[in-house]
Amino acid sequence: MSSALTEVEAIRLDRHARGLADLVANARHPEGGFGWLGPDNRVVVRRPVETWITCRMTHVAAVETIRRGNDAAALRPLLDVGHDALTGRLRDGIHGGWLPAVGGTETPPTDKVAYAHAFVILAAASLTAAEHPGGPALLAEALEVFDRWFWDEDEGMAREQYDRAWSRCEDYRGVNANMHTVEAMLAAGQVLGEERYLERASRIVDRVVHGFARESDGRLPEHFDGTWSVLPDYNHDRPADQFRPYGVTIGHVLEWSRLALNTRAARANGATIDGSDPLVVDAAALFRAGVSRGWGVDGADGFVYTTDFQDRPIVRERLHWVVCEGIGAAWTLHEVTGDPEALTWYGRLWDYAQRHLIDVEHGGWRHELSPTNEPSELIWWGKPDLYHAYQCALVPLLPGLVSFAGTVRKAAS
């Protein structure tokens, strides 16, 4: 732990992470996999079981299983829930890979998306680290599918999306899917001890952080065509899209800052990181861009969801995951550089979360607030995601973080 982390704060973070992980059991869907949690943390059976949610819940349960060691008996059956869904109903037994969702009262989509497949890798890496017997085979399959269809070796980036039969690749490339590919490759590389996956993460980070972000002065473009040319007006008519919003997504600016530092930690392999390292400098610039252009820019506390490329707020709702990523980035930057301003932001963001986002009555975090910090449902309803909040509680407990599964396993050994 960093010298800035008090014993009281470490205990609080540990308890908070434990409480969040305990909610994974609530998401267990009666037909298999993990479903969508409503505001009261009860699974919504009528909604489909989505691959990204199942993977995130499996990841949280697996990492927490490692953390608890011999006290993880209540969590271990949940690893089977995730594994069985990913090797069963969510897997496409006809064409290979994973469907984005199954079940529910409406017909779910069938496209093969890099975003979901990156999370399959993450979940499988976490299962492997937690010594689930099916983890290694699932991880090998997930990496093989990703290698074959999504990884573009020439570009050093991931492709976005195919139809179900893998016959047509969408003429769109996205930074969001590549961001989660970085996370997945860091986890796979650290858990397996295979440098090639860490190198892939590094290639993506270099292109996005040293390239796209630096060239745009931190106003990171999200959307590109098939040749990686920027599409600045993409989804201008759908600015509040959950996964491809128009403009600059403030939370992603912050998330890339942390992932850049995690990638630098992987490169350093335990050695001290110099604050003048170019990747550290660019990560710090991204963090400053995110907080200066996203926090309180419309007169109230909280991060806006998106801005345009002139820093004007577009979608002003406050999303919980943006605060979580701000917390994680602030702590990691402080750990690496000793930046006191980053530590101040860490405290400020936790204070905001405790005042507005943490649901004391039901548990978990409220996912969305209005521009005046009242409960809102414009973009997200319910509490489908535990992973952002769980991870931000763990970041200060894991110095030298590369991936959560790999670093927790290392700390427990």
What does this structure look like?
With about 425 residues, the chain is mainly α. The protein has a single domain, classed as Glycosyltransferase (Alpha/alpha barrel). The chain is built from 13 helices and twelve strands. The strands form six sheets. The chain has a two-stranded antiparallel ribbon with strand order 1-2. Strands 3-6 form a two-stranded antiparallel sheet. A two-stranded antiparallel ribbon has the order 4-5. Strand 4 (about 150) and strand 5 (about 155-160) form a beta hairpin. Helix 7 crosses helix 9. The mean pLDDT is about 95.
In short:
By secondary structure, the chain is mainly alpha-helical. It is 50% helix and 6% strand.
Helices and strands, with pairings:
Elements: H1 7-22, E1 49-50, H2 51-68, H3 76-86, E2 101-102, E3 112-113, H4 114-129, H5 135-150, E4 151-152, E5 157-158, E6 161-162, E7 173-174, H6 175-192, H7 195-215, E8 223-224, E9 248-249, H8 250-268, H9 278-294, E10 306-307, E11 318-319, H10 320-337, H11 340-357, E12 368-369, H12 387-394, H13 404-412
Antiparallel strand pairs: 1-2, 3-6, 4-5, 7-8, 9-10, 11-12
Helix pairs in contact: 1-2, 1-12, 2-3, 2-4, 2-13, 3-4, 4-5, 4-6, 6-7, 6-8, 6-13, 7-8, 7-9, 8-9, 8-10, 9-10, 10-11, 10-12
